[in-house]
C-alpha cells in the first residue's frame, strides 16, 4: 500500500464508520474522464490481483444527472482518488449493500448494516 493509499484508507474509513458522504476528485484512467464525485462510501478492499478499491453508491450532481450519469453502485480505484472531503451529510445503509465487497479477497473497512 502506497502512502497515498494509506492516507485515503484512513480518511475514508472515518466516513464509512460515521456514515458520512464523501466528495473527491476522480481520474478515470479507462475513459480519461476527470471530475468530482460524491458517494456513500461502503467498503474499501481488494479483489485478487487487483488494486485497492472503494465500493460506493454514486450520488451524481444535477449537472452529472443532466449528462446521463445515474445513481448506482460503483467501484473506484484508490490510486485515482484525490482531495477527499468528508461531508456533513449522513446516509442510511442501503438494503442491497453487500458487506463482503462483492467478493473482495481483502477488506480493510466496511460499513455495518
Helical region count? 2
* Total beta-strand segments: 6
Compute the separation of the termini in Å: 27 Å
SSE run = HEEEHEEE
Rg (C-alpha, Å): 13 Å
How big a fraction of the residues is strand? over 45%
Main sheet properties: 6 strands, antiparallel
Low-confidence stretches: none
Oligomer: single chain
Mean pLDDT over the full residue set: 89
Query: What is the 3D shape?
Result: globular
Helix percent reads 10-25%
Structural class: alpha+beta
What does the model show?
With 113 residues, the protein is of the alpha+beta class. 19% of the residues lie in helices and 45% in strands. The protein has 2 helices and 6 strands, in the order αβββαβββ. Strands 1, 2, 3, 4, 5 and 6 form a 6-stranded antiparallel beta sheet that branches. The N and C termini lie far apart (27 Å).
Keywords summarizing the entry:
single chain; 113 residues; 2 helices; 6 strands; 19% helix; globular
A few lines on this structure:
The chain has two helices and six strands. It is α+β, with helices and mostly antiparallel strands. The mean pLDDT is 89.
Give the helices and strands, then pairings.
Blueprint: H1 3-18, E1 20-28, E2 33-46, E3 52-58, H2 62-66, E4 72-77, E5 81-90, E6 106-110
Antiparallel strand pairs: 1-2, 1-5, 2-3, 2-6, 3-4
Amino acid at each position: 500500500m502506497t502512502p497515498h493509499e494509506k492516507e485515503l484508507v484512513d480518511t475514508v474509513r472515518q466516513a464509512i464508520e460515521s456514515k458520512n458522504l464523501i466528495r473527491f476528485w476522480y481520474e478515470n484512467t479507462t475513459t480519461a474522464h476527470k471530475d468530482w464525485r460524491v458517494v456513500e462510501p461502503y467498503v474499501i478492499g481488494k479483489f485478487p490481483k487487483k488494486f485497492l478499491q472503494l465500493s460506493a453508491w454514486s450520488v451524481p450532481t444535477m449537472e452529472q444527472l443532466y449528462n446521463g450519469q445515474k445513481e448506482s453502485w460503483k467501484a473506484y480505484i484508490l490510486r485515482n482518488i484525490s482531495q477527499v472531503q468528508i461531508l456533513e451529510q449522513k446516509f442510511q445503509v442501503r438494503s442491497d449493500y453487500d458487506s463482503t465487497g462483492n467478493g473482495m479477497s481483502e477488506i480493510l473497512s466496511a460499513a455495518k448494516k
